[in-house]
């Protein structure tokens, strides 16, 4: 129970708020269902899946090292975001299968025109990086 309460505080720091529309990408059998439930509790609504075709307030992107090109995934995610939206990139922690090197995340974010605003260890298996457009604005 203590781990769950700690996670809830960390999840809140990522910037999720009630009534936001959040698109979830990269869902697979290894995702953390408790973490998903905590995010949905904050949102007071379900996460949207890849079939959703309208703009969103945020994107929750589960990403593993062998999922392909992270830069492409971030650019695709940006296409669905409202102007003040953000991406929460969830990657396996260091030492876990599918871990993504921090330099790869930084390079992909930079190439996509994003910057990391916060990084957190959310669960025993997953780390989160909140990515936003620089304050000067995105075109």
Helicity level: 25-40%
Beta fraction: 25-35%
| Averaged pLDDT | 90
Which assembly state applies to the chains in this document?
single chain
Classification by helices and strands: alpha/beta
Give the beta-strand count.
5
Largest pleated sheet: 5 strands, mixed
Gyration radius (Cα, Å) is: 14 Å
User: Numbering strands along the chain, what is their spatial order in the largest sheet?
Assistant: 1-2-3-5-4
Unreliable runs = none
Mass-distribution shape = globular
Quick summary of this structure?
With 139 residues, the protein is an alpha/beta fold. It has helices at residues 2-13, 33-43, 70-78, 102-111; strands spanning 22-25, 56-62, 81-92, 115-121, 126-132.
Structure report:
The protein has four helices and five strands, in the order αβαβαβαββ. It has 139 residues and is of the alpha/beta class. Strand 4 and strand 5 form a beta hairpin. Helix 1 (2-13) packs across helix 2 (33-43) and helix 3 packs across helix 4. It is globular and about 35 Å long.
Keywords:
4 helices, alpha/beta, 139 residues, globular, 30% helix
Present the secondary structure layout.
Layout: H1 2-13, E1 22-25, H2 33-43, E2 56-62, H3 70-78, E3 81-92, H4 102-111, E4 115-121, E5 126-132
Parallel strand pairs: 1-2, 2-3
Antiparallel strand pairs: 3-5, 4-5
């Amino acid at each position: 129970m203590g781990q769950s309460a700690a996670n809830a505080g960390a999840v809140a720091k990522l910037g999720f708020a009630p009534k936001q529309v959040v698109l979830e990408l990269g869902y697979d059998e290894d995702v953390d269902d408790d973490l998903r439930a905590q995010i949905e509790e904050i949102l007071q609504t379900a996460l949207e899946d890849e079939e959703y075709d309208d703009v969103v307030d945020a994107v929750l992107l589960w990403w593993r090292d062998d999922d392909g090109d992270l830069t492409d995934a971030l650019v695709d995610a940006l296409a669905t975001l409202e102007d003040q939206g953000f991406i929460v990139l969830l990657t396996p922690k260091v030492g876990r299968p599918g871990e993504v090197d921090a330099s790869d995340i930084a390079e992909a974010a930079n190439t996509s025109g994003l910057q990391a605003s916060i990084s957190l260890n959310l669960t025993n298996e997953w780390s989160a990086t909140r990515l936003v457009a620089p304050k000067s604005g995105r075109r």
